[in-house]
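Forum: Protein Structure Q&A
Topic: Joint prediction for protein chains with partners

I've read a bunch of threads here and the consensus seems to be that you should model interacting components together rather than docking separate models afterwards. I'd like to see that in practice. Below is the full input, 427 residues plus whatever partners are listed. Could one of the regulars post the assembled result?
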Amino acid sequence: MYTTDLSGKGKAKAETATAEDPALLAAFEARVANDEFIEPKDWMPEAYRKTLVRQISQHAHSEIVGMLPEGNWITRAPNLRRKAILLAKVQDEGGHGLYLYSAAETLGTSRDEMIEALHSGRAKYSTIFNYPTLTWADIGAIGWLVDGAAIMNQVPLQRTSYGPYARAMVRVCKEESFHQRQGYELMMAMAAGTTGQKRMAQDALNRWWWPSLMMFGPPDDKSPNTEQSMRWRIKRDTNDELRQKFVDITVPQAEAIGLTVPDPALKWNEERGAYDFGEVDWEEFYAVVKGEGPVAKERMQARQKAWDDGAWVREAARAHADKRAAAKIAAE
Amino acid sequence: MSSKDWPLWEVFVRAKGGLSHRHAGSVHAADAKMALEHARDTYTRRMEGVSLWVLPSAQIVSSDPRDSGPLFEPAEDKIYRHPTFYKIPDGITHI
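Posted by a regular:
Agreed with the consensus. Here's the joint model:
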């Protein structure tokens, strides 16, 4: 389960809700401020709806695209245990995508529109999947770091103000912890293996560390929609708060299995009770958001191909259903 | 909903015998049989259920949130419907 907040890049920049009925707006704001949940048929400001559609569909796309880099490795898993685990994880990611698409559909967008937006390149997904998975250790690094960062993002979303999104996140969070643990266990096994295996594990950490930190989105001062989203309780923590939390819990996990976090500036700060860490390369982040990641094209081609190859199945199933429904009516 | 999508179905899962079915989410499917299969794959990968209901989302009739005042508020001032409304002296038991 993955999410990257790309709010700085979105089109739906907070149209201010002032054009709407001030009484309805005030009632809405009061409900949200009171930590009530907003449900599909409730009145909501257009900008709230738009922000949610963008965020939830982006989140769903990330789940679906996230199946690709790991799916690549199913046939090359080193043993049956690892293969069964990876299959289950990839299936979960598909399931998470479906929960989220359903949640977004309650806001009045169709599945078809969302998928079209993804394939045409209009919709974004987590930048993390535009990096290649070069070795088996990457599967460990993804579970441990990428799913770990995702959990950090998702736990607060269980209390997000939109009911269907919050409920989808409860389900997702319940399933996610297995993803992270299997990844860490895999890294642990490799770090305790031969010199070559340990080198692979360290190399995977080196390559996935910074992209994982980017998963929390741009720094707070460059994330213009954060304030609005926090006020509407769509977001509950800022990008930088979550990033710090992730660093603080992950560094000791790396140390415990004898791996080194690739950041020369990383240092425990006694006074803050937290790690100081180096600057993320935001130039790289924005380039990857724009679709310049090493394997961005390949990912979208794979998605498009799967969609096109499945078209006849979707059509045949519909034709079959129509035929049976017609036969049933005729028999009555 | 776009006509390109299969129809939407709401999914209800009975977690175990003795409990009622509870709304879990929704799936798209061409027909009822496929809706059950998709519901099984999407909502019961970890023994979350022993029984499933699916029904076409379009068939659900729901109340309008704008009517929730007239619908639900009349119950608010009828506190005598609750047992705690009645004062019973100390020492009276089994009531």
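The longest strand of chain A covers residues 267-269.
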